[in-house]
């Protein structure tokens, strides 16, 4: 079963746990229960499967090696530029603006690259523009922190940067929209034990 899970996630790189339960004919809990064991095997290959917002993501734990081997220098510079724009423009950058980022590629090459970055989950499509993809959030988090002009919110539950969610105005404790749905059923107060003020959060990102 572990092998099937690894193969299925490897094939998609990023897959919803519901999709996987259908594909493998097992429950979400069965998959979750096996993650620690699976990760101890993947550890040898510097790979790790992370569960974020009911999505399973295959992460290269040795850093952004895969990115460097699949993108040219110009493409990497472009990715860094667009991530910088997204993170400093309320986690969204328009499609037309993205094509006007100064770089040596022509428009066709940029469109092809953008599509590839979406397919591989480095970027995500939001309306007619772009947001930060789940793999960038997981594998490029130190880069994201360093290119941001403001202090980023990280999830109370898994320390992943929150680009769409809610935060406590008193203590900056944050969570994604999905995490907040679970949380709202359990508590009316901030989950930070040092704060515990009534949960009246501010919004993070595009709604
Ligand atoms: Zn708080």
Automatic annotation (TrEMBL):
Example of a GO cellular component annotation carried by this entry: nucleus
Top-level taxonomic group: Eukaryota
Xref: Gene3D superfamilies: Winged helix-like DNA-binding domain superfamily/Winged helix DNA-binding domain
Gene Ontology MF terms: ubiquitin-protein transferase activity
GO biological process: double-strand break repair via homologous recombination
The protein's name in its UniProt record: Uncharacterized protein
């Amino acid at each position: 079963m572990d092998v099937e899970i690894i193969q299925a996630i490897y094939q998609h790189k990023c897959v919803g746990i519901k999709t996987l339960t259908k594909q493998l004919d097992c429950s979400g809990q069965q998959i979750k229960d096996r993650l620690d064991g699976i990760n101890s095997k993947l550890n040898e290959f510097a790979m790790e499967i992370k569960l974020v917002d009911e999505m399973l993501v295959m992460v290269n734990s040795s850093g952004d090696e895969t990115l460097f081997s699949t993108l040219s220098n110009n493409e990497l510079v472009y990715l860094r530029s667009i991530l910088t724009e997204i993170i400093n423009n309320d986690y969204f950058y328009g499609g037309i603006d993205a094509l006007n980022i100064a770089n040596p590629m022509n428009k066709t090459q940029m469109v092809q690259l953008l599509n590839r970055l979406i397919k591989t989950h480095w970027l995500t499509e939001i309306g007619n523009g772009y947001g930060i993809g789940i793999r960038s959030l997981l594998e490029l988090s130190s880069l994201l922190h360093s290119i941001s002009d403001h202090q980023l919110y990280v999830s109370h539950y898994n320390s992943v940067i929150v680009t769409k969610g809610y935060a406590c105005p008193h203590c900056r404790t944050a969570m994604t929209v999905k995490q907040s749905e679970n949380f709202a059923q359990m508590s009316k107060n901030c989950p930070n034990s040092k704060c515990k003020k009534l949960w009246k959060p501010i919004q993070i990102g595009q709604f």
